[in-house]
What does this fold into?
Amino acid sequence: MTVMIYKNANLNGKEMKSFAVENGRFAAFGEFSALEKQYPQAKIEDLKGRITACPFADAHIHLDYVYTASLPAKATASGTLFEAIDNWSEAKDRLTTEEIKKRAYIAVKQQIACGVQYVRTHVDVTDPKLTALKAMLELKEEVRDYMTLQIVAFPQEGFFAYKGGAELVEEALKMGADVVGGIPHFEFTREDGVASVKKGFELAMKYDKLLDFHCDETDDDQSRFVESIAALTYFNGMQGRSAASHTCAMGSYNNAYAFKMMSKFKKAGLNFIVCPTENCYLQGRYDSYPKRRGISRVDELTKNGLNVSFAQDSISDPWYPLGNGNLMHQLDFGLHLSHMMSIPEIEDSLKFVTDNGARTMCIKDYGFKCGNSANFVVLDADNTVDAVRNTSETVLSVREGREIMRKEPAKVLTSYSF
Ligand code: FE2
It folds into this structure.
């Protein structure tokens, strides 16, 4: 196989290097002159100092829901999570495996065009036919050369609030789902919510799976299932293998409680996934003014050394009408909503949509290291601040040394002469 040398790569916007790729893996990093001597037959591409980043990792999306915004008979007039779940419940019976896959493919292609190579999709398993799960298991195999897809067995209508929900989650794990999901704040009672978290851990331990709960996706400051998830992560030795998605209520917790929980989160090594556009749309709906921003404490979690990633969550579904799979858009929103806008914070921000998501997904073979799969993307920017400011496009995506997407940036033609 031909060796490729990529010269003048601005690795993660932090370090100018050249590197060689051989047999689909990173073979060497260093000065171009040395690499050229080491691999005299190599093909060469000059990346011209553009940001060369680890591929984007979207740790939270619902690929079985994409482009269904108009499917339920009733539109989600209130813009709330709970009305959307009710409307979805009425619509989902009519779906077929073929139709779900067809829609998901459109989203996957959009994600690939945006440099996304790692995706964790929550799949609704509160359906006795498990139609969406079957579609996603097929999709996972079919896109493998372009994308690493992780499937969450997600009981959208609850482990217990939906009759047979827990059994369906278990069935989904047996069929090949990678991650146990849950939605404790949607169960009927606080006790059921805690029981659903316990059941989730029991299943994860039984089948050796990861965990990722939709957790406290509400402005209710009394919604505190994140503490149960942290405790069970810690006591079951699942540090690094479990995640709390959303945790919007943390934006409403009093500081004394939030401060106490930070040290517990650290002990638990809990991963946090924040969906900036989705939750600033869904939350604050019961506020008049002032209106809450709806997202978790990204700045405090990050300062405390916790792993936080930004994710898309929805593309045009009953929960959120927009979305396009571009994580640079989520990064832009996430930094604004989190008040993380100092220059050093922006310079260090690509991690929210790359490394941190991959870490949550427990991807081992990730990063610029000799021997790792040569998976990377090139952005149309030579520094991170410009990349974020312009939501720069991904112009090249390479996976296992193979070019899977190349894009020509738009040319602007003008008539002015100044
Ligand atoms: Fe979600």
